[in-house]
Structures are given as structure tokens and as C-alpha cells.
Amino acid sequence: MTDQNNPFIFGAAVGSGLTALAVDRAGADFLLVLNAGRLRMRGASSLASYLPLRPANE
């Protein structure tokens, strides 16, 4: 997806599928997937992603 004339790489950190879909449609070169996004959308703090609350691959 990178244009040969553009020296920049566009990446985004995403935490949910909706955000990843939007960034992919925007033309991101890579995605950094985070586990904290699902917990933050449920009202938990970012530090909750360090605790073994749920399996990361569910």
C-alpha cells in the first residue's frame, strides 16, 4: 500500500475490530493490535490489561 513517492509509513495502534477496519480502509501500512482496547471500552483502566482477567485471544 505504500506509494513509492511517499517516504512515510502510516501505522496505527488499534484495540478493537471496528477501529482496525476503519484504519485499514484509510490505507494504513501496518496495524499494532493492543489488548487494552476491549477492556477500556468496558470501562476498565488500561492497567487492567496487565491482569489475567480474560484470555487475550477470545
UniProtKB/TrEMBL annotation:
Instruction: List membrane-spanning regions.
Output: none
Keyword Hydrolase present in the record's keywords: the answer is yes
Q: Does the keyword Hydrolase apply?
A: yes
User: Which segment of the chain is annotated as a signal peptide?
Assistant: none
SUPFAM superfamilies for this protein: Phosphoenolpyruvate/pyruvate domain (SSF51621)
UniProt entry keywords in alphabetical sequence: Hydrolase
An example Gene Ontology molecular-function term: hydrolase activity
Pfam families to which the protein is assigned, alphabetical? PEP_hydrolase
Q: Which residues form the TIM-barrel domain?
A: 5-58
Q: Which domain of life is it from?
A: Bacteria
Write the protein's name.
Answer: Phosphoenolpyruvate hydrolase family protein
From which source organism is this entry? Parasedimentitalea maritima
